[in-house]
Design goal:
alpha/beta, Serine Threonine Protein Phosphatase 5, Tetratricopeptide repeat, six-stranded mixed beta sheet, disordered N terminus, Alkyl_sulf_dimr, Hydroxyacylglutathione hydrolase
Length: 466
């Protein structure tokens, strides 16, 4: 093993974590919504950048994690006669960069690859780690079910994926993706994927690879094919995407099937029960130190469960998703934790997903059983305002007052009116989207607002959808 350069070493008082603790105090004023003053939003997102600063982190004597080489992390465990790779990034280009960085610390052959789940940013670069010797590749029995079976809506999911991650934003517009850098090598997606050769049974697996004792535990959460990896001797835990430094993405706005929130909370609780000395997330920096790592996992599990419980109580009290999305909040003792700031996931989005996942689309209010079609509703809104011109003036007034959400909603009414200035409605919507984006510290929201505004401005979207 060569030591040509030193890896990043993280402790409980790391620079990134310390700065985020300070920023968290500011974030606490944002309530359940993720809108703050533009300067604050940008400062928070810039601070979050440190969570995926490119480099190799030494987690334990024989454990190394490559952060920032793409959106996700990849890790190397050094054994007696070989190494084990945990997740393999997005494609061969990013994976090759990480593999070369790892080779500064060990030149032993890869004996095994473990996929924590089947999202493409964790499995697409496996070929870059493989030499002449074909390694065993471990995954769960349900591997491949991460995105469900919604192939029929793949076209729109792709478009929304591009917006959520800001893949087409200019450098001036880009900040980051909440738990990942904005600029990543994406043109070789999945080209290095190697299929699993060893299936992890539903009750888990204990084995030894390259002299390293390994436990693999089934842990549904962000995906139902997820597993976490535990090194009992080193007391290092690889969490996959069930944990990272942000409130979790219990629902992704690109469009996902229901993610079982209770399963997710329980899986993270099982991780916390192991009292790891270090936890390696699927994204963002590892957390070292037993107290710091264990507390983070306990808090994470509690936060997910709290959002679920509050939502269920509200549902059973007869409240609908729109009301609950504004009422449910993280408990006071958790809201300022740096690993629970809503950089990636969002509490309001989670609430809506839980409601829909448990009850479907109907909110129980008979008014919403058969609502007016959009054009007819717009006409009645216009009549209520005193005519199309008056409604248009209200839309412009909302924009002038920087009441951006209301401006958006009014623009969506004005666009349906045959006698309205639809070009003006489009312009107002673009400006309102950019106004909201400037105030967002939730990266998917920010990226989506900006991406949609650009599509409107360039004419990519039809009259129907703007």
């Amino acid at each position: 093993m060569t030591r040509n350069s030193l890896p990043i070493r993280l402790g409980t008082n790391s620079r990134a974590l310390g700065l985020l603790c300070i920023v968290a105090l500011t974030a606490g004023t944002a309530r359940a919504q993720t809108q703050v003053e533009p300067e604050t939003a940008l400062r928070m997102l810039n601070a979050q950048q440190q969570q995926f600063e490119k480099g190799v982190v030494q987690v334990a004597d024989n454990v190394f994690t490559a952060v920032g080489f793409h959106g996700a992390n990849t890790s190397m465990i050094v054994g007696t006669d070989g190494v084990i790779i945990i997740d393999t990034l997005f494609g061969p280009a990013s994976a090759t960069d990480a593999a070369e960085a790892f080779r500064q610390y060990s030149d032993k052959p890869v004996k095994a690859i473990l996929y924590t789940h089947s999202h493409g940013d964790h499995i697409g670069g496996a070929s870059a780690f493989v030499g002449d010797q074909q390694p065993d590749i471990y995954a769960t029995e349900r591997f491949g079910s991460a995105e469900g079976v919604n192939k029929a809506v793949d076209p729109i999911k792709l478009a929304r994926n591009v917006r959520q991650f800001g893949r087409k934003l200019s450098p001036a517009e880009s900040t980051n993706r909440g738990v990942a850098p904005a600029g990543t090598k994406d043109n070789d997606r999945g080209e290095g994927f190697l299929p699993p050769t060893v299936t992890v049974p539903n009750d888990g697996l204990k084995t030894t690879i390259a002299g390293v004792e390994i436990e693999i535990h089934i842990s549904p959460g962000e995906t139902d094919d997820a597993m976490f990896i535990w090194l009992p001797k080193e007391k290092v835990l690889f969490a996959g995407d069930n944990f990272y430094s942000s409130f979790p993405n219990l629902y992704a706005i690109r469009g996902t099937a229901y993610r079982d929130v209770l399963d997710w909370s329980e899986s993270v609780g099982k991780m916390a029960a192991l009292k790891p000395h270090a936890v390696v997330p699927g994204h963002t920096m590892p957390i070292k130190g037993q107290q710091a790592a264990t507390t983070a996992l306990k808090d994470y599990s509690e936060a997910i469960r709290s959002v679920y419980d509050q939502t269920v109580r509200g549902i059973n009290a007869g409240k609908g998703p729109d009301q609950l999305a504004h009422e449910v909040k993280l408990p006071e003792h958790l809201k300022d934790k740096p690993y629970l700031i809503q950089f990636y996931g969002s509490v309001p989005h989670a609430v809506r997903a839980i409601y829909s996942g448990l009850l479907g689309w109907y909110d129980g209010n008979p008014t919403t059983l058969n609502p007016l079609e959009p054009k007819l509703k717009a006409q009645k809104m216009s009549e209520l305002a005193g005519g199309t011109q008056k409604l248009t003036e209200q839309m412009q007034s909302a924009l002038t007052k920087q009441d951006y959400q209301w401006a958006l909603e009014l623009a969506d009414h004005v666009k349906w009116l045959d006698d309205a200035d639809r070009k003006l409605a489009r312009k107002v919507k673009i400006e309102a989207l950019r106004g909201l984006a400037a105030r967002e510290y939730n990266a998917p929201n920010r990226n989506y607002y900006l991406s949609y505004a650009n599509e409107l401005e360039s004419g990519q979207l039809s009259e129907l959808w703007f």
